[in-house]
Amino acid sequence: MLSMLQRWLIYFPTRKREVRVEDASLPAGKVHHISVRTDDGLELHGWHVLADGHLATDQEQCDRELQRGRLLVLFFSGNAANRIYRVEEIRVLTAAGADVFIFDYRGYAENAGSPSEAKLVADARVIWKYATDERNVASDRIVLFGESLGGGVTTRLAAERSQMGTPPAGVILRSTFSSLVDVGKYHYPWLPVRILLVDQFLSLEHIPKVTCPILQIHGARDTIVPISLGHKLFESAPETSANGLQRRFVRLINANHNDVLHVAKTELSRAVSKFLAQLHDW
Question: pLDDT value at position 280?
Answer without folding.
Answer: 77
